[in-house]
Structure prediction request, 284 residues.
Amino acid sequence: MPIFMDRHDVPNATAEAVAAAHQADLAIQSKYSCNCMTYWCDEQRGTAFCLIEAPNADAVRQMHRDAHGLIPLDVMEVDPATVAAFLGRLTTPAGHEPIRETAFRAIMFTDMVGFTDVTATIGDVAAYALLQTHHDIIRQDVEAHGGMEIDRAGDGFLLCFSSVTKAMACAVAVQRSFAAHNAVTDGHPIHVRIGLGAGEPVTDGQGLFGSTVNLTARVCGHAGADQILATTVVRELAVGKPFTFADRGKVALKGFAEPVSLCEVLSFQRMLLTCARRRLVITA
Prediction:
């Protein structure tokens, strides 16, 4: 049977109340040929997400209606491998404590700048070795910051983090790692661009984290070499955290009807460069 994820808006609901609703689902799931696999509860945002094996989306809605009356706003068929990659599990953790694990995730895209041109310059063999160095550096920092590798396409990565803080710390670490590598390498330097976004899994029917992934990919594509660009939601969630931002205004991104406000997360190297440019402007 297919697997569905649904979304419930439950303002002011506690984790205990969501856990009780899940137990009510379990009590009648067989009546609707469903298998309630697990759920996520975000008390702060007032949302809950259920993962259910079911014959169809209507069966999910009918089961919820009968069990507790909390009808989901959205029900979307999902790939279990993708759920596991983004959210880390497909079943309820051991024990009987109410789940207070949010399904909100920070998304990161990375892209190696100018790799096609580099390949034409240094040849396939040397380019392949350079690409492996690129992969190793990124994976090392992603692992150190608790990130998950969702996909790799050629010279870029799609990565996922449980918090915006971890994603930004990783992005800054990645840029610092490449700066350190470039300072000592005898070979071709590696430059990457990074895009950061954040959101919930079921919002628009475009697939798991669909709009967030699409937007973050466009943000990454808009970034320059050695730059980290982020959406405003990332900045808002980083209030009080030890990161420095610079406004980059509103930009038109392909696939989005309205211009998107972006900001830059400044790594130490970018901060030095920005300060140097400002001094040049002031001097001039």
Remarks:
- Residues 124-144 form the longest helix (21 residues).
- Confidence is low (pLDDT under 50) at residues 271-284.
- The two ends are 68 Å apart (CA to CA).
- The longest strand covers residues 35-42.
